[in-house]
């Protein structure tokens, strides 16, 4: 499977534990366990924002120590903030997905789309607009690679790069995050997902 960080449209550190669990479900995944995050860290996962894990702890994985992420002179590892109030404390979340039962694809369309047009274009193609968990699963488990920014169901715009190259993701294989643009902008394509019955 694949572990991925998630923060909502509101920006970082906006989810209590219960909202974090819900947000992962909405993205076709579950909240990650410590073991899942640890294994992802061992495979090179580096992320400087703290997120909830399934045991109610708040942690983050660092492979390249640097000043804003616990200090430059620290050892790599999974940084542990400990256990926080599940109702009042607010962080990001680490989600985990291994479930991939369908076809993930970039919809070839003659024009760029607004968010609403993107949703409709996938439906018209017999699919649904893809979720964040689905783009991460396609990227990690299938090596999906596409240098076109596309809308996803949560209103974010991302694209998956498995083969780093100039102008796409020069230094690393990653799911690149463009942001949460105004949904009325006709600047992006769309990623769709068609479930296998």
From TrEMBL:
Q: Which SMART domains match?
A: LINK
GO biological process terms, alphabetically, are:
cell adhesion; central nervous system development; glial cell differentiation; positive regulation of neuroblast proliferation; skeletal system development
| Pfam families according to UniProt | Xlink (PF00193)
Mind naming one GO cellular-component term on file for this protein? perineuronal net
Sorted alphabetically, which PROSITE patterns does this protein's record hold? LINK_1 (PS01241), LINK_2 (PS50963)
Protein's name according to its UniProt entry:
HPLN1 protein
What intrachain disulfides are recorded? 48-69, 147-168
Highest taxon in the source lineage: Eukaryota
Its subcellular locations are:
Secreted, Extracellular space, Extracellular matrix
């Amino acid at each position: 499977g694949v572990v991925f960080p998630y923060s909502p449209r509101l920006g970082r550190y906006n989810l209590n534990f219960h909202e974090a669990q819900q947000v992962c479900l909405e993205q076709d995944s579950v909240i990650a366990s410590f073991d899942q995050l640890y294994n992802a860290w061992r495979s090179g996962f580096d992320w400087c924002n703290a997120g909830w894990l399934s045991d109610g702890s708040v942690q983050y994985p660092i492979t390249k120590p640097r000043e804003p992420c616990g200090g430059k002179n620290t050892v790599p590892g999974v940084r542990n903030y400990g256990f926080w109030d599940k109702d009042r404390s607010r962080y990001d979340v680490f989600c985990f997905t291994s479930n991939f039962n369908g076809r993930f694809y970039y919809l070839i369309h003659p024009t760029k789309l607004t968010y609403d047009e993107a949703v409709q274009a996938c439906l018209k193609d017999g699919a649904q607009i893809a979720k964040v968990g689905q783009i991460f699963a396609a990227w990690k488990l299938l090596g999906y690679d596409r240098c076109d920014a596309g809308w996803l169901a949560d209103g974010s715009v991302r694209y998956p790069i498995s083969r780093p190259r100039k102008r796409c993701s020069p230094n690393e294989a990653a799911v690149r995050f463009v942001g949460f643009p105004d949904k009325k902008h006709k600047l992006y394509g769309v990623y769709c997902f068609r479930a296998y019955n």
